[in-house]
Design brief:
- The complex is a heterodimer of chains A (245) and B (448).
- Chain A contains nine helices and ten strands.
- Chain A is α/β, with parallel strands linked by helices and 245 residues long.
- In chain A, strand 4 and strand 5 form a beta hairpin.
- In chain A, helix 3 packs across helix 4, helix 3 packs parallel to helix 5 and helix 5 runs parallel beside helix 6.
- Chain B has 448 residues and is mainly α.
- In chain B, helix 8 runs antiparallel to helix 9 and helix 13 packs antiparallel against helix 16.
- In chain B, 26% of the residues are buried.
- The chains are: A alpha/beta (245), B mainly alpha (448).
- The interface between A and B is medium-sized, with 34 and 28 residues.
Amino acid sequence: MEPIIIMRGVDKWYGQFHVLKNINLDVQPKERIVICGPSGSGKSTLIRCINRLEEHQKGQIVVDGVELTNDLKHIEQIRREVGMVFQHFNLFPHMTVLENLALAPIWVRKMPKAEAEERAMFYLRRVRIEEQARKYPGQLSGGQQQRVAIARSLCMSPKIMLFDEPTSALDPEMIKEVLDVMIELAREGMTMIVVTHEMGFAKSVADRVIFMDQGQIVEQNAPHEFFNNPKSDRTKLFLSQILGH
Amino acid sequence: MAVSDTATENAALGPPPATTGFLGWMRRNLFSNVWNALLTILSAYLLYLVIPPAVSWLFLDATWSEATPQTCRAAEGACWAFVREKHRVILFGRYPYFEHWRPLLGIGVLMTMVLVSCFRRFWRPWIGLVWVGGLGAFFVLMWGGDIPVTYRTVAVIGAAAAAIVALARASGGMRSLLLWIAALFGVLAVGFGAILRVLDAILKALFGIEDVLIGAAGIWFEIPTGLTFVPTSLWGGLPLTLLLSILGITVAFPLAILLALGRRSKMPLIRTFCIGYIELIRGVPLISLLFVGSFLLPLFLPRGVEISDLLRAQVAIIGFSAAYLAEVIRGGLQAIPRGQFEAADALGLGYWQKMARIVLPQAITLVIPPIVNTFIGLFKDTSLVSIVSLTDLLLATKDMAIGDVNWRAFYAEGYTFIALIYFVFCFFMSQYSQHLERSFETGRRKRR
């Protein structure tokens, strides 16, 4: 099958700092990928390049058959098909939960308002939060906000979902409710790329785990192999630090 | 004996100091320590010096009934008979005396339009119709005479209609089409005459034919109103002040938003233009802009093109306020976290959708206090148009009411009266802004 995301020799610099070094990555439809690695290794930058929140300077990125260039039409076309969930949720605080969800379907997909709200309620039920529809994001807990953020992305019926450390800003007791929603999504066959430190999630749902360090993909493997039989020393060191206690 | 001893002891202690009631409140707030007590006494003394004379001048010794300047001069207090005698010229300036009902009705129309717009539940596209209708009625009332219908009338009505219909529709490609039509009409309204003139010049150069097209830029036909014609040079007083400020605010605000966005744009040409405009306009006083508008601009205009003093002053006020407001709004834009922009981008919203739906609503709510500050400043700055001889509220009072030799002595009463008028409007704006802030805050106190 044709890969849904193709990255070929992608490089990126922040000023003098070389954040991404020669990244090559193919993602198959319905594949679930977890990216881990120490902070500053370029994991977030990598997924943010996929929907052009960051611009790559060398190499080629093709998403769903469309190449990412400076062409705004291509960028908007790709963003419609790629959902993203952020560490800090980034819900729109001046709108109710329902308005947050219905916004993009109405204005980007040009859907009639009633239909968009129906769809919003459908996804709110799926993330088990429909009773909060009329509230403002500021009135919800962190876990609830992140589930709303996931539902907001799903409302656009994306082909790919990107998660940028979705549980890092949450209190421990709320992490599970968000992971449960993500696991459900993975079971339904969504193409997912997840940057996370939740190794339990990686073990249970990932098809492939990618380890990054200093802007490079150091190692990638199926989770079982990755955790039990890491090849590089850097991976071993990282795993011992993260799983050691 | 022992019994009476305890009795005297208790009496010497006295009652416990009051902590409740009026005395308690005084003790806590006015006399809590030596400094507070001193300040309280000093303030009380100052109030004693100011208030009684003010009250007797304003009310007790004032002349209220119909009186002549002579009886007024004999009285100790304020001469309100002066305001009673002159209120019509103060409020309406040079506007013909027997037509004063027209500006009065005009004020009513403008105020109704503004008050209706104050309710958030009326913030719907149809409010645009109220404004087009209200302003149209105001100008027809004030001008009177035969209303000339030109390409400009048609283009302005076309632009307004297309824009309102476009905004009233929820979504769809129809919407952008209508907005384009509105923009086209807008350009025509401003530039049609100039375009025809250029085409005429080309025709003249090529074929030697003179002025064939410019006729289309003239008056097409006239609608009689049955009212006497009153040129803008005779408009004055409160209607003029209100018109300058209301139009100033409603036109400067969207302009300011565009300037603020432009200043943050990634496109160098747009950014440089916006920075240049803002810095240039902020760098000069409004008075100098009014002078440039009235005395310099006519020198540069082609012969035959005439712009009324009123329009020139209006444009100067709009341009000036837009530069200030732009910086206020930019302050709000800076305060919006990056994550909001990124979330909007990631959902696939375009630039204008992102700004209109996500960024600006939050940014503008944040800077309501300084925005209203600028509006209040603009309202009071309209009094500067008196230097280009527009008879606004202030100049009407100064020249026409106080200028009457018989009443020259009573300037304090005149200025007190218009100070009260200015205060009422400014106080309303300030109260309304606080109301708006509270109403936007509900439900989002716990924001990140």
